[in-house]
Structure formats: C-alpha cells, structure tokens
C-alpha cells in the first residue's frame, strides 16, 4: 500500500493474521464528549476516537465554553456544570452527522442562539428528523430548504414531549434525550426498531436516570450530570473491516481486544457467524454500562445471506464492507430495507454498486438495497470513495482478494472515523 496523500494502492494478499486493538468507538466518544462538557467536574477519557468526526465534536464543545486537553488518545474535559455559553462563531460539525444532530438537542435546551454548519456532504443530509421534534419541544430552528444544514437554533424553555420516531435513529433518540435534560417534565422517545442505546447508557454513566418502558426511553428534565473516568471500548464498526478481511481468507486468525460488545452493536458478530466466520468470545466485562471483550476470529467458509428489517438497521454502518466482499461469498448477499444507506456520508447503495462494477462484478442496486451474487471474482481497478470513509475502507478490504492492484481515490476520507486504518491493515496482511 502506498500513499500519495489521497490515492492508496492495495495489492492482493495471501492471508490476514494478528492481534489488534481499535481506537475508541465513535458513537460513544461523541456522547461522552458532549456529556462530559455538560457535567460537573473533570471527565477523563482514555482511548477517545482518533477520527476527525469526534474531533469535530470536541471543537464544538470548546467553542461552547467546555475546555479540554488532549494527550494522545486521552482527553481531559473540564465540564461546565450545565452552563454552556453561546459560541462566538458558527459551530463547525465537519462531516459529522452525529455531531450536528446530537449537539442540536443540547443546544435546543440552552438560553442562547447557535448556528451549526458542515462540509459539503453534511450539508446534503436530512435534519428534519431532529428539527421537527425539537421544535415540538419549544426550540426555534431555521434550516436551509428541505431541512438541510446549516441550522440556526434559538433554544430554551423546552417542555417534554412523547415522540415516536418515524425513522428509527439512535442519533435522533440521543438528541431528544439530551434535550430532555433541559425540558420541563418527561421526554419519551419510542422506536419501532431497536437502535443503538449508547445515549441512554452514557446518560446513566454520567449520573442521570433514564428509564426504559417497552419501546420507550424516558428522561426527566432538570437532572445534573457528574464527570466520569472511562476507557472507551474499541470501535466495532471499525473492527468490521478486519472481520470481513479475515472472512476472505480461510484459515486467517485475528484476535481483537478491548472491543465494544454492546448487544445493539454486536449483532454484526451474530450475522458474521451465521455467514460462516468463526468468532469466539474470550473474555467480557462491563464498563460504565457498556460490554467490552476480546474475540478470536477465524476465516472459514464465507457463505453470505440476506440482511433485512432490524438486521439492516443494526448493521447500517457495516453494510458497505459486507457488500464490498459479497462477490466472494458462496451464496451472495442481498440487502433489503436499507433506504437510510442513501442518506449517509454518501449514497452508499450507489457507491458500493458503482465500485463493484468498476472491479468487474455484477451488483444490482434496488431502491432500498443491493443484490450481489456470490461466486464472483474482482479485478483490480480504480475506485473512488466519494469522500466517504466507510466506502474507502470497504474497498481496501475487497481489494485484498482482487486480481491485480486496486487504486482507491480519495482514500484519505478514512480519517473521518479511523485515520490509522491503512497502516493497521498493512500490519495484518501477509503478501
Ligand atoms: C449513530 C447512529 C447511526 C449510524 C451513525 C452513528 C450514532 O445513524 O449510522 O454512524 O452514533 O447514534 P442513525 O442515527 O442515522 O441511524
């Protein structure tokens, strides 16, 4: 693999082997940084995500008055005990939908006006999903046409609502629960499909009470948060790239330590096992309500299968890499119910299909998914990340089994979640 800044060349590999630990989970890092900024006291976070998205969150909370220092992957945040102050400049959320959507919940509860903007990709992403319920709670929010960024939020005087999310989204759920901290009465958020629960778990870790009744998460306003000291578990969505790389090589062996195993995220492991990958859990413990463990992985047969409904929702961030390696499965991969893939950092359905075709494979795009036959070969080609981190990394993995070398353009997009991805992959590859 060579790097001329933004194009990476990936050569075919013979095998994958090694032991690794991943930078902190992106979803948890965002939430801990936001809640640490609001809490009373000093929050110490080890293994904070190294991704640019989580740095965007840190930049925003600093602009809102919560100071922090970073030493390597340790972040020390001096919480402002609920007293954020208006930022002097618009808040730059970069490429990060999580930053914009979740921070909007907090800002909706503040007695001042904030502006949030993002890069070209974020500027195309839907924000109506948070604007509507936050307005119902009492915030005044202006956006660009069609509910797109930038956002202008005049916060304060919120009242709790009971909200049933039309699109199941953990970002929306967290945003509303964070707003609920500042609202009068109870805020109830219900979901038809179970989404990741890091918002609820993080709120409890910082000392708030969050109840769960059936499909609803419930928070009462006026609760104070207290600082924590935590080591953030390794990002399971980043681990997915190495798990799929292992799946490509029967006999490959990987050990992944300090891995996030939260059940709302670890469905990935169950699905990979059902598709043929050997995964055994070696140890597991709980940290601040999150499960963390060590897994041993062995490449075996790679069968493939179908993802639909709750599985698609639970694996939404891992579908690009599962789809990129699908040509090498025995039965292929069908993804249904994945309309949300079209409004991520890129249109991930179109991006995966285009890149697979560039590598000589058959890949059918449907409105809400993909159909990729198994038993195919890929040939090395030029592919484009479209500036989307997960597309860049997904095709680096697929390229390990292609015939000939693959050039990945705009591969530097990987920095959004995992800047060390290419060097980590290189360390595991046997050529
Ligand atoms: C995330 C939730 C998911 C996911 C995103 C991170 C989170 O998005 O795709 O990468 O941290 O809550 P949605 O909430 O839009 O489903």
Walkthrough of the structure:
It is built from 13 helices and 25 strands. By secondary structure, the protein is α+β, with helices and mostly antiparallel strands. The protein has 2 domains: 221 residues, Enolpyruvate transferase domain (UDP-n-acetylglucosamine1-carboxyvinyl-transferase, Chain, Alpha-beta prism); 205 residues, UDP-n-acetylglucosamine1-carboxyvinyl-transferase, Chain, CATH 3.65.10. Strands 17-18-16-3-25 form a 5-stranded mixed beta sheet. It binds shikimate-3-phosphate.
**What percent of residues adopt helix (DSSP H or I)?**
25-40%
Number of domains: 2
Q: Write down how many β-strands occur, each being a DSSP E stretch of 2 or more residues.
A: 25
CATH class descriptor name of the largest domain: Alpha Beta
DSSP helical segment count: 13
CATH homologous superfamily label of the largest domain: Enolpyruvate transferase domain
Distinct bound molecules: shikimate-3-phosphate
Return the structural class: alpha+beta
Q: Which strand order does the major sheet show?
A: 17-18-16-3-25
Report the span from N to C terminus. 11 Å
Largest sheet: 5 strands, mixed
Rg from alpha-carbon coordinates? 21 Å
What are the key terms here?
431 residues; alpha+beta; UDP-n-acetylglucosamine1-carboxyvinyl-transferase, Chain; 2 domains; 13 helices; 25 strands; 29% helix; globular
